[in-house]
Amino acid sequence: MIEPGGAGVRIRTATDSDLDAVMALEQASFPASAWERGTMQAEIASEWGRYIIAVDGDGRALGYAGLRAVGVEGDVQTIAVAEGARGRGIGRALLAELLAEASRRGVRELFLEVRADNDVARGLYASVGFEEIGVRPRYYQPEDVDAVVMKRTEQP
Predict the structure, then answer these.
(1) From residue 114, how far is each of 13, 84, 124, 131, 137 by CA, in Å?
(2) Is 113 a catalytic residue?
(3) β 73-81/109-115 pair status
(4) pLDDT in tens, 37-77
(5) Is 109 among the catalytic positions?
(6) What's domain 10-110's architecture?
């Protein structure tokens, strides 16, 4: 378990027993485009990925994130932090653990999509070496928001 800044916050691998908490965060963070429960359950169980959850000392979910890695390529699938827990370094700690997991799995090229209107997330990703490589017009539906595609390359 990793302990990011903030007393009693731990990051651990998410399991099926975390599905309700992850879905509550998913729906609160992405109300119009939240993943379906079955999709999230499959992602948490997938051998190709790792989902992690940040919990406080009482076991309350503060955030979660997911990685999908196949061969030397990977994708940061999602990162979400509860509104009341933002600004405490939890998102950065979740991302750091995904980057470490990608490295352990031998990922050399890591991709993600981020909302074009999410300057905070874009800044976080850029601060750890992601570069903007393209735009997917109107990717986020039904909000009709573009996605900025970002890539981070690991040196062998």
Answers:
(1) 23, 21, 11, 12, 12
(2) yes
(3) parallel
(4) 999 999 999 999 999 999 999 999 999 999 999 999 999 99
(5) no
(6) 3-Layer(aba) Sandwich (3.40)
